[in-house]
C-alpha cells in the first residue's frame, strides 16, 4: 500500500452533492465577482472567528499584502516576522515596499520567539507579523504587549490556523488584522486561490474593501490606487459549504494527531508539541528527526510520501540574499529546517494508513 501526503479528492467525494449544488446555483445565477455568496461567506467566517469584519481577497499572500497597506505600512517601513514560513509571508511584505526584519523561533512550537522581538525594533518598525505555523498560534499575549508599548500594529498570518485558538480567542482575531489563505490544502480550502482578512476595526475593513477592488468607492470612481484581489463567487459558495464541516475536521485532525503520537511514542523523534496557550488544529503533523533525510528516503522507498515545510529558511533563499542575513544568524530556524518532516495528514486519511506510516518509521529505527 502507498500512502500519499494528501488526497483532496476524498473530501470532495464525501460532500460532493452539496458542493455540486452550490456550484450549480452560482452558474445559474451567473454573477461571479463581489456578489451575495461572498457577502454571506465574509459574515459567516467572521462570525465563526468571533471577528467583526471579514474581507475576502484573492489569496493568503494578498490578504497579508493588503492588510499591511490597510494598517498604514509605507515604503521603507519595517515588519518583524520569522524566517521559517511560506515565502509568500515575506513576498507580501515586499509587495508593500516594506522591509522584513527576521527574528528566530521558539524551537518547541516553531513560532516567533517573543523574547527576541524587542531587540529587533527600530524607529522604522511598523508591524509585528507572527506566523501561526502548522496549526497553532504564536504566543500572542506577550507579543501584543510589546506592540502596545511601542505603538506597533499586529498582522497575524493565520494562513495555516483556521480555528486554532489562543486562550479563548480564535487565531486572527487578536491583532489589528488576521490573514487567511484558502489554498486548496488548507484546513478550510477552496478549489483555487482565495483568501480573507478579518479585523475588528471598521477603518481597516473599509480600506481593504477599497484596495481589493481597484480603489473604487463606486463604479469608475477611484479614491485610492488599488488592486484587483477578490474572492470570487464560486470559491465563496463552496467555502460556505465547507465552513460547516471545519470544526469537525479540526477535531478529527486532533484525534489523528493523537493516534500518530501514541504510535510514535518512545522513538528518538520529537513529536509535535501543543503549547499551553491554545488549541492546535494540526494543519500539518510535523516531526523533528535528526536523521531526517535518511528517514524520508526510507519512507519514499516504501511508497510513503512526506514533505518538508520548509526546507530553506527565507534568509537563506537566493531571492532574499539582499536581506544580508548570514547562515548561522537564526540558528533555531536553521536547525528546524534540517530536522522537520511533515507526515501524510488530512482529515480523510484512514487509520490503517497512519498505522502503516508509524510502523514504517518504527522499522527505520529497528
Ligand atoms: C503561513 C503562510 N502564509 C502565507 C501563505 C500564502 O497563502 P496563498 O498561497 O493563499 O497566497 C501560506 C500558504 O501558502 C502560508 O502557509
What does this structure look like?
This protein is of the alpha/beta class and 366 residues long. Helices cover 40% and strands 13% of the residues. It is built from twelve helices and 14 strands. The protein has helices spanning 9-14, 16-29, 36-49, 60-70, 88-95, 117-120, 140-150, 202-212, 233-264, 292-301, 331-339, 351-365, and strands spanning 53-57, 78-81, 99-102, 125-128, 153-157, 165-166, 169-170, 177-181, 195-199, 216-218, 221-222, 278-279, 286-288, 340-342. A seven-stranded mixed sheet has the order 1-9-8-5-4-2-3, with helices on both faces. It has a three-stranded antiparallel sheet with strand order 7-6-12, with no helix packed on it. Strands 10-11 form a two-stranded antiparallel sheet. α2 packs antiparallel against α9, α4 (60-70) packs across α8 and α9 packs across α12. The longest helix is centred in the C-terminal third of the chain and has 32 residues, at 233-264. The model has no long low-confidence stretch (mean pLDDT 98). It binds pyridoxal-5'-phosphate. Pyridoxal-5'-phosphate (PLP) binds next to α4 and α5.
Amino acid at each position: 500500500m502507498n500512502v500519499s501526503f494528501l488526497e483532496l479528492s476524498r473530501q470532495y467525494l464525501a460532500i460532493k452533492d452539496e458542493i455540486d449544488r452550490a456550484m450549480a446555483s452560482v452558474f445559474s445565477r451567473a454573477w461571479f465577482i463581489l456578489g451575495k455568496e461572498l457577502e454571506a461567506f465574509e459574515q459567516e467566517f467572521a462570525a465563526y472567528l468571533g471577528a467583526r469584519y471579514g474581507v475576502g481577497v484573492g489569496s493568503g499572500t494578498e490578504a497579508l499584502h493588503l492588510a499591511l497597506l490597510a494598517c498604514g505600512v509605507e515604503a521603507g517601513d519595517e515588519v518583524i516576522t520569522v524566517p521559517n514560513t511560506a515565502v509568500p509571508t515575506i513576498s507580501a511584505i515586499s509587495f508593500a515596499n516594506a522591509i522584513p526584519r527576521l527574528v528566530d523561533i521558539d524551537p518547541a512550537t516553531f513560532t516567533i520567539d517573543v523574547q527576541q522581538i524587542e531587540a529587533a525594533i527600530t524607529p522604522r518598525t511598523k508591524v509585528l507579523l507572527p506566523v501561526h505555523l502548522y496549526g497553532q498560534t504564536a504566543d500572542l499575549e506577550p507579543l501584543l504587549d510589546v506592540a502596545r508599548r511601542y505603538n506597533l500594529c499586529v498582522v497575524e498570518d493565520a494562513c495555516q490556523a483556521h480555528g486554532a485558538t489562543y486562550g479563548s480567542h480564535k487565531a486572527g482575531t487578536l491583532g489589528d488584522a488576521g490573514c487567511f489563505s484558502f489554498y486548496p490544502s488548507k484546513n478550510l480550502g477552496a478549489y483555487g486561490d482565495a483568501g480573507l482578512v478579518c479585523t475588528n476595526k471598521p477603518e481597516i475593513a473599509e480600506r481593504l474593501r477599497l484596495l481589493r477592488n481597484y480603489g473604487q468607492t463606486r463604479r469608475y470612481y477611484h479614491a485610492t490606487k488599488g488592486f484587483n484581489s477578490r474572492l470570487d463567487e464560486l470559491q465563496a459558495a463552496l467555502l460556505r459549504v465547507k465552513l460547516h464541516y471545519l470544526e469537525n475536521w479540526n477535531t478529527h485532525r486532533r484525534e489523528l494527531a493523537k493516534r500518530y503520537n501514541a504510535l510514535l511514542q518512545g522513538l528518538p523523534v520529537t513529536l509535535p508539541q501543543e503549547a499551553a496557550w491554545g488549541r492546535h488544529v494540526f494543519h500539518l503533523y510535523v516531526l523533528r528527526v535528526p536523521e531526517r533525510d535518511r528517514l524520508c528516503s526510507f519512507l519514499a522507498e516504501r511508497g510513503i510520501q512526506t514533505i518538508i515545510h520548509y526546507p530553506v529558511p527565507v534568509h537563506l533563499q537566493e531571492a532574499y540574499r539582499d536581506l544580508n542575513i548570514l547562515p548561522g544568524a537564526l540558528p533555531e530556524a536553521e536547525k528546524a529546517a534540517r530536522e522537520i518532516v511533515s507526515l501524510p495528514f488530512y482529515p480523510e486519511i484512514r487509520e490503517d494508513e497512519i498505522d502503516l506510516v508509524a510502523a514504517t518509521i518504527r522499522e527505520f529505527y529497528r
